């Protein structure tokens, strides 16, 4: 079995405003991933700049920071085997127009600027992003009754 991984997700402000936080979280739960941290928060400019530091200087950077700070987001940590790649696959490609129709972005979004969901893109990024949004004691270790039917 693949290593148990943790990854950061953000249901962006468009997801909260469109009342899609529940359906989006459901997709990850239905896959078998375990929610080990979750909170509703209004990301401020300073946190947004740290989270999106890799995109600083790109043409879309300012719009991206404006957007992610425009209202409440739901931020969480998902856990499971290959959680990082599994989450990215369920999210779909960055541009919702070309995203797989079965993915979250492919199902619910139309534009790259409002693509509903963030997920860490690798193990190093996941660690950094989880540390940015959560204190260690906000992340819970537990198992669910049905886990043995997902991971064995
Ligand atoms: P990802 O969210 O699929 O990992 P990244 O390349 O990390 O995609 O970009 C971060 C976010 O920046 C995207 O989710 C999208 O909202 C926004 N973004 C990326 N490229 C563009 C662009 O060309 N125009 C407008 N927004 C963009
Ligand atoms: Mg990214």
What is the second-level CATH architecture of the domain at 4-41 and 74-141?
2-Layer Sandwich
What name does CATH use for the topology of the domain at 4-41 and 74-141? Alpha-Beta Plaits
Shape: globular
The run of helices and strands is EHHEHHEHHEHH
* Main sheet: strand order: 2-3-1-4
Question: Which class do the helix and strand fractions yield?
Answer: alpha+beta
Q: How is the main sheet built?
A: 4 strands, antiparallel
Rg: 15 Å
Could you estimate the helical fraction of the residues in percent?
Answer: 25-40%
Average pLDDT confidence is 97
CATH superfamily of the domain at 4-41 and 74-141, by name, is Nucleoside diphosphate kinase-like domain
N- to C-terminal distance: 9 Å
Poorly predicted tracts of residues = none
Strand content: 15-25%
Number of strands: 4
CATH class of the domain at 4-41 and 74-141: Alpha Beta
Q: What hetero molecules are bound to the protein chains? A: inosine-5'-diphosphate, magnesium ion
Could you describe the 3D structure shown?
The protein is an alpha+beta fold. The chain has a domain at 4-41 and 74-141: Alpha-Beta Plaits (2-Layer Sandwich), CATH 3.30.70.141. The protein is 39% helix and 18% strand. It contains eight helices and four strands; from the N terminus they run βααβααβααβαα. The chain has helices at 13-17, 21-31, 45-51, 61-68, 83-91, 104-108, 123-133, 148-151, and strands at 4-11, 34-41, 73-81, 117-119. The chain has a four-stranded antiparallel sheet. The longest helix has 11 residues, at 21-31. The model has no long low-confidence stretch (mean pLDDT 97). It binds inosine-5'-diphosphate and magnesium ion. Residues 60, 64, 94, 112-113, 115, 118, 121 line the site of inosine-5'-diphosphate.
């Amino acid at each position: 079995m693949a290593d148990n991984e943790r990854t950061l997700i953000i249901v962006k402000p468009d997801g909260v405003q469109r009342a899609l936080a529940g359906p989006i979280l459901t997709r990850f739960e239905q896959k078998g991933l375990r929610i080990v941290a979750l909170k509703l928060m209004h990301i401020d400019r300073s946190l947004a700049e740290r989270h999106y530091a890799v995109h600083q200087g790109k043409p879309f950077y300012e719009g991206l920071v404006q957007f992610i700070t425009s209202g409440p987001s739901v931020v969480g940590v998902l856990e499971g085997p290959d959680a990082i790649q599994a989450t990215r696959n369920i999210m779909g490609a960055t541009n919702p127009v070309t995203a797989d129709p079965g993915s979250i972005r492919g199902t619910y979004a139309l534009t790259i600027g409002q693509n509903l969901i963030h997920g860490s893109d690798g193990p190093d990024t996941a660690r950094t992003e989880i540390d940015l949004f959560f204190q260690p004691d906000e992340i819970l270790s537990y198992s669910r009754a049905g886990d043995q039917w997902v991971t064995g």
